[in-house]
């Protein structure tokens, strides 16, 4: 059985890179291609999820699992891969003409441009269902109760009262002047719930008590909102080359954002405040949580 490394000389950047490589290998194995009639669908799924991204959600799963005493890295990688598949499905569907209508993702043609719209829809559907399949399999955890809890919490994070519901609110809000509480609610659903699950998943996998699990939930909630505010700032200030996708789309769609309500400096201050709050939630874990603490700075200072 491989163990999750606790090497203390590694920097956050190195740790992120190492984790991304491991996740890429796991995703590649889980989505192995072959000579099958449905191979075009598999190709589109692989295109949508492999070869790009910082894997921040998967990284949060891995780090929270390590802190919570999970020593089987394969189990943690499976849960992290499930989150990355769910996230990839949301991006594939978000890019469709009926949604955000974006031709670029991570500097490459969006899945519907590389293949076609129908294939992109099916690829997203298949990645979503596979995410739950992975969580339900015995290889993820020997306890059926743990597997059911993972499935339930991911469903809550990604469904009508989570990510999908947030997307609906986002679409309905185009051209309207939303209040700050409305924007916070929108993004707590659309972006925050999946990030919260990513940090909570490690505690579920480690079968921790309510107090520890609650700390990871609170961390995910606050870092998730800080992440979204940073996204709003980047959409205003970063170039298309930095983002790897179309810049300035929020303003073009006349969306209310943290930047439109608070201004760039006000948004930066709010992101930094939330990042500091997130760090406090895991400070009790001491040196074990140093990468999660460092991550709070990373998400608000990044340029893509």
From TrEMBL:
Keyword Zinc: no
An individual GO BP term: terpenoid biosynthetic process
Gene3D superfamilies (UniProt xref): Farnesyl Diphosphate Synthase
CDD domains per record: Trans_IPPS_HT
Enzyme class: transferase
SUPFAM superfamilies (UniProt xref): Terpenoid synthases
GO molecular-function term, one example from the UniProt record: (2E,6E)-farnesyl diphosphate synthase activity
GO terms under cellular component: cytoplasm
InterPro entries, alphabetized: Isoprenoid_synthase_dom_sf, Polyprenyl_synt, Polyprenyl_synt_CS, Prenyl_diphosphate_synthase
UniProt superkingdom: Bacteria
Pfam families per record: polyprenyl_synt
Alphabetic keyword roster: Isoprene biosynthesis, Magnesium, Metal-binding, Transferase
Cofactor(s) needed: Mg(2+)
EC numbers for this chain: 2.5.1.10
NCBIfam families on file: FPPsyn
Family: Belongs to the FPP/GGPP synthase family.
Family matches, as PANTHER family: FARNESYL DIPHOSPHATE SYNTHASE (PTHR43281:SF1)
Name of the protein in its database record: Farnesyl diphosphate synthase
Source organism per UniProt: Entomobacter blattae
């Amino acid at each position: 059985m491989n163990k999750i490394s606790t090497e203390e000389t590694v920097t956050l950047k190195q740790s992120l890179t190492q984790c991304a490589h491991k996740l890429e290998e796991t995703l590649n194995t889980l989505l192995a291609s072959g000579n099958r009639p449905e191979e075009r669908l598999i190709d589109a799924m692989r295109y949508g999820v492999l070869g790009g991204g910082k894997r921040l959600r998967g990284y949060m799963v891995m780090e929270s699992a390590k802190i919570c005493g999970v020593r089987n890295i394969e189990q943690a990688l499976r849960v992290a891969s499930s989150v990355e598949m769910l996230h990839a499905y949301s991006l594939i569907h978000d890019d469709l003409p009926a949604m955000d209508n974006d031709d670029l993702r991570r500097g490459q043609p969006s899945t519907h441009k590389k293949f076609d719209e129908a294939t992109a829809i099916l690829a997203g559907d298949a990645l979503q269902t596979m995410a739950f399949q992975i969580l339900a399999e015995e290889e993820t955890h020997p306890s059926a109760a743990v597997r059911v809890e993972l499935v339930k919490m991911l469903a809550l994070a990604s469904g009508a009262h989570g990510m999908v519901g947030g997307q609906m609110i986002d679409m309905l809000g185009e051209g309207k002047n939303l209040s700050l509480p409305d924007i916070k609610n929108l993004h707590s659903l659309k972006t925050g719930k999946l990030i919260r699950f990513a940090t909570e998943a490690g505690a579920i996998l480690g079968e921790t008590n309510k107090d520890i699990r609650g700390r990871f939930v609170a961390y995910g909630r606050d870092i998730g909102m800080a992440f979204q505010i940073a996204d709003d700032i980047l959409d205003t200030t970063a170039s298309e080359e930095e983002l790897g996708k179309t810049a300035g789309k929020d303003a073009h769609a006349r969306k209310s954002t943290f930047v439109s309500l608070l201004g760039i400096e006000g948004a930066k201050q709010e992101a930094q405040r939330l990042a500091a709050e997130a760090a406090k939630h895991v400070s009790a874990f001491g040196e074990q949580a140093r990468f999660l603490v460092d991550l709070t700075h990373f998400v608000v200072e990044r340029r893509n």
